[in-house]
Prior knowledge:
Layout: H1 2-18, H2 21-26, E1 29-37, E2 42-47, E3 50-56, E4 59-64, E5 70-75, E6 82-86, E7 89-90, H3 98-101, H4 103-116, E8 120-121, E9 125-129
Parallel strand pairs: 1-9
Antiparallel strand pairs: 1-4, 2-3, 2-5, 5-6, 7-8
Amino acid sequence: xxxxxxxxxxxxxxxxxxxxxxxxxxxxxxxxxxxxxxxxxxxxxxxxxxxxxxxxxxxxxxxxxxxxxxxxxxxxxxxxxxxxxxxxxxxxxxxxxxxxxxxxxxxxxxxxxxxxxxxxxxxxxxxxxxxxxxxx
Length: 136
């Protein structure tokens, strides 16, 4: 009797743990350290034409993970604007060994992570160099 209940309960628990693996392990956001040469540039982060945050360098910004590119525009008086592109990188999907036995459960987790963007990551630091404007 207990075995007939125990096995489905164990499978359910394992499925809930495996679903959204990256979401559970790394969360859905990350911090990026931002620097500028010279210091003091204001950097605005945008994704799909929507501002998602800004920081005065040096500083850090917390962003939500996504599979969408982030554009960074840094400005400082007396310097030309500088632009950087942050492209997300997909995290590795565990394959081989015991993960093959759990593949159906891991596949569910991969779908959850893909939907939330948690299976992607950005580089953890950025230094933007601004060029001085020509003297008038």
